[in-house]
Amino acid sequence: MSKPLRVLSGIQPSGKLTLGNYIGAMKNFVELQKDYECFFMIVDLHAITVPQEPAALREQTESVAALFIAAGIDPAQAAVFVQSHVPQHAELGWIMTTLSYMGELERMTQFKDKSEGKDAVGAGLFVYPSLMAADILLYQANLVPVGDDQKQHLELTRDLAGRFNFKFGETLTVPEPYIPKVGARIMSLDDASKKMSKSNPNAGSFIALLDSPDDIRKKISRAKTDLGREIVFDPKEKPEISNLMTIYSNCAGISLEEVQARYEGQGYGAFKKDLAEQVVATLEPLQQRYREIRESGEIHEILRAGAEKARAVAEVTTRQVKEAMGFLLPSSKR
Ligand code: AQP
């Protein structure tokens, strides 16, 4: 039997996970674990590329891990771990930084977006894509689920792997993007030209996975809508309502055409009310399971075992990389 393909992905503990993270990433993780050898991590080393408050970072890291499990990721199938529990990320991250060119990092649109208008921009934000490349290459991942915003980073990862192999000999797997069958880009509730983001200072712009039913209802009732009153999917002319329809379609498990047909002749008010109930019903079981996981304390053992599994692979790749580059390796007692 051939070896299953490897998939790697991660989420930053940089705030409260949103419905965007769930629909765009976590729901896919649950599907992927059935067919691939998966590594899902909480990327705390990435989160600190912008300032984080220590107590909040600790809490959010544990919370994201518990949400992974609550969403249906099975730690018996996939390795779930915290990035900083596997020190090889930082080590290979540095090596990848030395192989990256200033020019290619300067071209990254995420860096431009996140640094725009800031007086002081951390160097970590600049070399973030080199660390992300290391995350992927460390596991010799074949597939990486990527949203539009991450395509450029994956391209760089592929370039770095190719560059390494050319200079030092075939060592690293060049990963391919995995375009999920389902899922979508969920946009901000106050501006459909921006993606829904957990670090948006306006809490009304996102639905957090742990928001109470009342907060969800309030946020959806206040969500921005377009002129007119028809429920039609037209991202160009009606971006706000199209975004809400995408959320409806994902939560109810029906197509956008079905959503449109269901609300023909009805206004925004009725649609928004039903949408809120769809979101509440989607998140209720997840929130229940989340509370159980947090209360049981089981997450610590899950993360310990996940890191052990990840480390076993990461150690082998790091050793191969260092050997190929000419590092003098410490001798092991045998
Ligand atoms: N709005 C979204 N719609 C669909 N997918 C989304 N993802 C994030 N937001 C949406 C997907 O979630 C995964 C992990 O995201 P991340 O937390 O590592 O970083 P991010 O993409 O930068 O997410 P945020 O919420 O915008 O974080 P901050 O605000 O900290 O930068 C990815 O697979 C992403 O596609």
Descriptive overview:
The protein is mostly helical and about 325 residues long. It folds into 2 domains: about 5-180 and about 295-325, 3-Layer(aba) Sandwich (Rossmann fold), CATH 3.40.50; about 205-290, Tyrosyl-Transfer RNA Synthetase (Orthogonal Bundle), CATH 1.10.240. The chain has 13 helices and 7 strands. The strands form 3 sheets. Strands 1-2-3 form a 3-stranded parallel sheet. Helix 9 packs antiparallel against helix 12 (about 270-295), helix 10 packs across helix 11 (about 255-260) and helix 10 crosses helix 12. The longest helix is centred in the last third of the chain and has 29 residues, at about 270-295. It is globular, with a radius of gyration of 21 Å. The structure holds adenosine-5'-tetraphosphate (AQP). Adenosine-5'-tetraphosphate binds next to helix 1.
Short description:
The protein is 55% helix and 9% strand.
Brief descriptors of the model:
single chain, 334 residues, mainly alpha, Rossmann fold, Tyrosyl-Transfer RNA Synthetase, 2 domains, two-stranded parallel sheet, 55% helix, 9% strand, binds adenosine-5'-tetraphosphate
Structural class category: mainly alpha
Query: What is the string of helix and strand elements?
Result: EHEHHEHHHHEHEEEHHHHH
What's the number of extended β-strand segments? 7
End-to-end span in angstroms?
Answer: 33 Å
Largest sheet: 3 strands, parallel
CATH architecture of the largest domain: 3-Layer(aba) Sandwich
Q: How many helices does DSSP assign?
A: 13
Instruction: Determine and state the CATH class of the largest domain.
Output: Alpha Beta
What shape does the CA trace take? globular
CATH superfamily of the largest domain: HUPs
Mean pLDDT: 95
